[in-house]
Amino acid sequence: MTAHAPAGPGRATARPYTRRQFLAATWAVTLAMLSGQGLVALWQFLKPTARTGGFGGKVRAGLIEEFRPGTVSHVAAGRFFISRLDEGLLAIWHRCTHLGCTVPWVEAEGRFNCPCHGSIFNTRGEVLAGPAPRPLDLFPIEIVDGEVWVDTSRPIVRAEFDPSQVTPV
Are 33 and 64 found together in one domain? Predict the structure, then answer.
């Protein structure tokens, strides 16, 4: 049996860790935390998201009463126009089918005029003039409890206007 001698002058006390071990453990914990944060950030970036309320998801356009027959209204959050025809509603994507420019509605002329290359479209999105090869794309519309909802995650590419594309009101 050995007796445990009290520490005195010139005697070293037993340390649980050396300085080198302490610094190595601190670095290991710091690197583990940093790697964990990086993996969480990467996962947040890569994971798919179900979006509602903005482009790429379902967008509330407004109440049916807000869209009077013969009017075209822009919904900026969804990047589309609601065209109210006598037959019903069309959600027209404001992206030109020629080269993807944003096509504004010109109220004074009653048509869509592409400022980039001069394509002209009517209230149904049909090509009236210009280099655009086909009508403006549409988005599907749902009417729920008197509210107009547009699904901007599913553009409808079309070759021509068909009355079945109109959502009845």
Answer: no
3-state secondary structure of 150: strand
- Tell me: do 109 and 136 sit in the same domain: yes
* Domain identity same for 101 and 145: yes
Is 28 contained in some domain? yes
Q: Cβ of 160: how many Cβ atoms within 10 Å?
A: 10
| 27 and 104 part of one domain | no
Burial (CB < 10 A; 0-12, 13-18, 19+), residue 20, is exposed
Q: What is the pLDDT of residues 54-88, one digit of tens each?
A: 667 888 899 999 999 989 999 888 889 999 999 99
Amino acid identity, residue 159? A
pTM > 0.85: no
What is the per-residue pLDDT across 110-141, written as a single tens digit (0 to 9) for each? 999 998 888 999 999 999 998 989 999 999 99
| Nearest-angstrom CA–CA distance, 89 and 151 | 14
Helix boundaries (H) for the chain:
19-46
